[in-house]
Amino acid sequence: MTDQTYIPLSTPSLCGNEWEYVKECLDTEWVSTAGKYVGLFEQKIAEYTGARHAVATVNGTSALQISLQLSGVNPEDEVIVPTLTFISPVHAILYCQSIPVFMDSDKYFNLDIEKTIQFINEETVFDQGVTKNKTTGRRIAAVIPVHIFGNAVWLEELNTICSERNIAIVEDACEALGTFYNSGRYEDRHAGTVGRLGNLSFNGNKIITTGGGGMILTNDASLAEKAAYLTTQSKDDAVHYIHNEIGYNFRLPNILAAIGVAQLEQLPEYLKARKTIYKYYADSINIIPGLHIVSTPEYAQNNHWISVVQIDPKIYGTGREELMLRLKTEGIETRPIWHLNHLQKHLKSYQSYKIDKALDLVDNCLCLPSSSNLTNDNLKHIKECLSGD
Length: 389
What we know:
The chain is an alpha/beta fold. 36% of the residues lie in helices and 17% in strands. The protein has helices spanning 18-28, 36-49, 60-70, 88-95, 113-123, 156-165, 221-230, 254-265, 267-285, 313-316, 320-329, 357-364, 376-387; strands at 53-57, 78-82, 99-103, 124-127, 130-133, 140-143, 168-172, 180-181, 197-201, 214-218, 235-237, 242-243, 291-293, 300-301, 307-311, 335-336, 352-353, 365-368. Helix 3 crosses helix 4 (88-95).
């Protein structure tokens, strides 16, 4: 951090081979989608996550859009998505001219699996291989479990019913690079590799960054091939510019992939740092009356991308907005959780189902600085400001 008086929420740490690899791109003039680093980044991400195939995209939202299309989501189909998430997966649904159905959250901020299954069992009918919403008559084509803040969504029961009901699971693991299941049916699997398609993001605030960028994960070779085709403008003949269907300019530039390769080399250290930050917060803040660091699922090894404090205003004496402003005056950036999507102006008309937990989480939680390069002095200052010392 260049300004030691300011502690941002989550910034990249660029201290490895980024300069060397980017310089190679500049020296060789391979800066666009062609060049060795795009393929190398895809290979390295596939190896790390255990996915058989990885296809690099310009950002995580584009990866989600293509994954929905490849999952058979058509215009006027419905897709179940949590209301508590960054808006990216919701907009990806709309880009496909499809319709979101908003679902509540569990205590880990993730999609409420029990309510989702209840909705499928009680609010839909299954007829001739198609699950239809009783209220709208539309086909339920997919569910997007979002692994919020790196917390893995428990997918066993959901995967079972979705398989039975011909509903695709498209995982949004954009915040979950480095999160692995450690128990259950999917033990040792990386978040984003349980469904037929999963997605990662390498935005500037993620654990590793390419400045922007995303990745589609799949074990299906044909889906990977189709994803690469669609994201490069659907070129059937690149020499004669023959395109037989609508494609997209969604491929990741080589110069950004070079940054990603260098960042991935440092991922183990970043994960170690974020775990240390989370543990410091849990040990030092949980003893402050009215504050509690939100726990992570025991069934997964968490990447601890963002640590979140839950506030009980009656005990702590200060609410979320007041605390956020107080910390800002001390040079500490914090953020509330996203505004719930079923309450967004342009999304209010879409169906939502039994949302209550998400409302409480949004009202009483604050995201704390979690950059991998936070210093001990930074952490001490944050703790002291929270405790009023």
